[in-house]
C-alpha cells in the first residue's frame, strides 16, 4: 500500500493528495481513497480501482479542506473489496477521524479480541476500532489514543491518521515500511510512503520518520514523539528489489543506483556467454543496465510492456494474474531472434508471469535464455505487507533452482546471493528485513507454523 498526508492552511489539498497518490500508484492498485478535513468535519471518498479512474476533478472539488490523507491499497489481509478500501473513518468521543495503513500487523487476532467488535475486515480496521475505543472510554484526543494504541501493535505499519484538526504519521519500531516528512513552500507539511510523492507536489524532503516515531502536525507545526526505542531496524529489503520507485531514496540510498549495483554484482557472480542483456521491464531495467555494463555485453530491449496494465504480481487472484500476462508483454522479434539472451528479472515469486514471458521470447526466436535474478530465491511468506502468505504459491519454496530453470524453460538460471545483494544496496548490511529470502523473521509471527523465527 501507499499512504500520503498533507496539511496546508493556505490551499485546498484534495488535488495535492490526488497527485501524491498518483505517484504512489505502483504500491497498490486495488482501491484508492482520500479523506479531507475542512476544520469541522472529515469527508471520505474511496472506491475500487486506480487513482486516475476514481477521482475526476469534479469528485475532487467535492472534497474541500486544508488537511487530507490518502491511500492506495494492495490487499494483504482482508478481501479486495470496497469495504476494505481506505482511509477508514470512525466517529468516536465526538470526533471524526480517518486512518490509512501501509504494512501488515502480525497480532491482529489477539488485538481483535480486545475490540469487542467480533471479526474485523482487516488489521487496519482493528487499529481504527482500538483508537475509537480508547477515545470513547478515556475521553482522550486522537494523538493520545494513537500513543496508547501503537505499542500494542506488532508487525509492520506506516500510518497516516487525522481528525478535524491534526495530521499524525507513525512508523513501526522496526521501520519495515518507509514514511517520509516533507515541507511545502507555503509552510505546509506532507507525509508520504516514498520521496517521489513529495517531489510531485513540490515538497522538499525533510527526513524519514524514524522507526518507533510518531509525528503530530497541527497549528503549532510538527511535534515528534518517540514511542518505542531499541528495536532492531528491519527496513524491507524488497523495497529496493521491487516495490519502491527507482527515482526515490530509502534510508538515504538511491533506489535506482542500488538496483544498478545489484546488476553489476550479479554479472560478477553469475556471468553468461550472450549477445544481449535485456530486462523484464520495468523494475529490472537498472539491474539489467548494470549487468550489461559489468559483463561488457550489449544492452537491448526484448520486450515491450503495455504501460496501462497494473502489476500482475499485485493482481488479487491467480486467474486474473494468468490472463493479464499476454496483455502485459510482447516480444520485439527483430531484437531477440537467433540471439543468446541474458534476461534480468528483479525477483521470482510465483513465476506465473515469468513462465509465460519466457515462452514469448522462445516463440519470438530467442536462441538461448540465461535468466539472472537480482535477489535470492523467494522461499518464505511475507507477513509484513506483501501478499505472499501462502508458502505453496512460492515457486522457490517447492522447487530447486534447477527445477525452476526447467519449469521456466530457461537454459540457465542464477540468483544473486543474499550477502551480495545487501552489499550492493549499502555498506551497512544490518537493518534490513530479509525474511522472505532467508526465513529469519525480525518479529515473532503468532500462529505461523512455517515461519523460522530469527532473533
Ligand atoms: Fe520485505 Fe520480504 Fe521482509 Fe516482507 S519478508 S518485509 S517482502 S523483506
UniProtKB/TrEMBL annotation:
Entry note: cofactor: Binds 1 [4Fe-4S] cluster per subunit.
SUPFAM superfamilies, sorted: N-terminal nucleophile aminohydrolases (Ntn hydrolases), PRTase-like
Active site per database record: 1
EC number(s) recorded for this UniProt protein: 2.4.2.14
GO biological process: 'de novo' IMP biosynthetic process; purine nucleobase biosynthetic process
Leader sequence segment: none
Pathway membership, UniProt: Purine metabolism; IMP biosynthesis via de novo pathway; N(1)-(5-phospho-D-ribosyl)glycinamide from 5-phospho-alpha-D-ribose 1-diphosphate: step 1/2
Coiled coil: none
GO molecular function: 4 iron, 4 sulfur cluster binding; amidophosphoribosyltransferase activity; metal ion binding
UniProt KW keywords: 4Fe-4S, Glutamine amidotransferase, Glycosyltransferase, Iron, Iron-sulfur, Metal-binding, Purine biosynthesis, Transferase
Organism domain of life: Bacteria
Chain residues that bind [4Fe-4S] cluster: 236, 382, 433, 436
Stored PROSITE patterns: GATASE_TYPE_2 (PS51278)
Keyword Chaperone: no
Family to which the UniProt record says this protein belongs: In the C-terminal section; belongs to the purine/pyrimidine phosphoribosyltransferase family.
Function: Catalyzes the formation of phosphoribosylamine from phosphoribosylpyrophosphate (PRPP) and glutamine.
The protein, known as: Amidophosphoribosyltransferase
Organism: Paractinoplanes rishiriensis
Gene: purF_2
Amino acid at each position: 500500500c501507499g499512504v500520503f498526508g498533507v496539511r496546508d492552511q493556505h490551499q485546498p489539498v484534495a488535488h495535492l493528495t490526488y497527485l501524491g497518490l498518483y505517484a504512489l500508484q505502483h504500491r497498490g492498485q486495488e482501491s484508492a481513497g482520500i479523506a479531507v478535513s475542512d476544520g469541522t468535519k472529515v469527508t471520505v471518498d474511496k472506491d475500487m480501482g486506480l487513482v486516475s479512474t476514481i477521482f475526476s476533478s469534479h469528485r475532487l472539488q467535492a472534497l474541500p479542506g486544508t488537511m487530507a490523507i490518502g491511500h492506495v491499497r494492495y490487499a494483504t489481509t482482508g478481501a479486495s473489496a470496497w469495504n476494505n478500501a481506505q482511509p477508514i473513518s470512525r466517529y468516536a468521543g465526538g470526533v471524526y477521524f480517518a486512518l490509512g495503513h501501509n504494512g501488515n500487523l502480525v497480532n491482529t487476532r489477539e488485538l481483535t479480541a480486545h475490540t469487542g467488535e467480533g471479526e474485523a475486515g482487516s488489521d487496519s480496521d482493528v487499529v481504527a476500532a482500538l483508537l475509537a475505543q480508547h477515545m470513547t472510554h478515556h475521553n482522550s484526543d486522537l494523538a493520545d489514543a494513537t500513543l496508547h494504541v501503537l505499542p500494542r501493535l506488532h508487525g509492520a505499519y506506516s500510518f497516516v491518521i487525522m481528525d478535524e484538526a491534526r495530521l499524525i504519521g507513525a512508523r513501526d519500531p522496526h521501520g519495515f515500511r518507509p514514511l517520509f516528512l516533507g515541507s511545502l513552500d507555503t509552510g505546509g507539511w506532507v507525509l508520504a510512503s516514498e520521496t517521489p510523492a513529495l517531489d510531485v507536489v513540490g515538497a522538499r524532503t525533510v527526513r524519514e520518520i524514524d522507526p518507533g516515531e510518531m509525528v503530530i502536525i497541527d497549528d503549532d507545526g510538527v511535534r515528534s514523539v518517540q514511542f518505542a526505542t531499541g528495536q532492531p531496524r528491519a527496513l524491507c529489503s524488497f523495497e529496493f528489489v521491487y516495490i519502491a520507485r527507482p527515482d526515490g531514496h530509502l534510508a538515504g540510498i538511491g533506489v535506482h543506483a542500488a538496483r544498478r549495483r545489484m546488476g553489476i554484482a550479479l554479472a560478477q557472480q553469475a556471468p553468461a556467454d550472450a549477445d544481449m542483456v535485456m530486462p523484464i521491464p520495468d523494475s529490472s531495467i537498472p539491474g539489467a543496465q548494470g549487468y550489461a555494463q559489468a559483463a561488457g555485453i550489449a544492452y537491448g530491449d526484448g520486450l515491450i510492456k503495455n504501460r496501462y496494465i497494473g502489476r500482475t504480481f499485485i493482481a488479487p487472484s491467480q486467474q486474473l494474474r494468468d490472463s493479464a500476462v499476454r496483455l502485459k508483454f510482447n516480444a520485439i522479434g527483430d531484437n531477440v531472434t537467433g540471439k543468446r539472451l541474458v534476461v534480468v528479472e528483479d525477483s521470482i515469486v510465483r513465476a506465473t508471469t515469468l513462465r509465460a514471458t519466457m515462452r514469448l521470447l522462445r516463440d519470438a526466436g530467442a536462441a538461448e535464455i540465461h535468466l539472472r535474478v537480482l535477489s535470492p530465491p523467494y522461499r518464505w511468506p511475507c507477513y509484513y505487507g506483501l501478499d505472499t502468505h501462502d508458502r505453496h504459491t512460492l515457486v522457490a519454496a517447492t522447487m530447486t533452482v534447477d527445477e525452476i530453470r526447467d519449469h521456466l524453460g530457461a537454459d540457465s538460471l542464477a540468483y544473486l546471493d543474499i550477502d551480495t545483494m545487501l552489499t550492493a544496496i549499502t555498506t551497512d548490511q544490518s537493518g534490513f528485513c530479509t525474511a522472505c529470502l532467508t526465513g529469519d523473521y525480525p518479529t515473532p509471527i503468532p500462529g505461523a507454523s512455517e515461519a523460522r523465527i530469527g532473533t
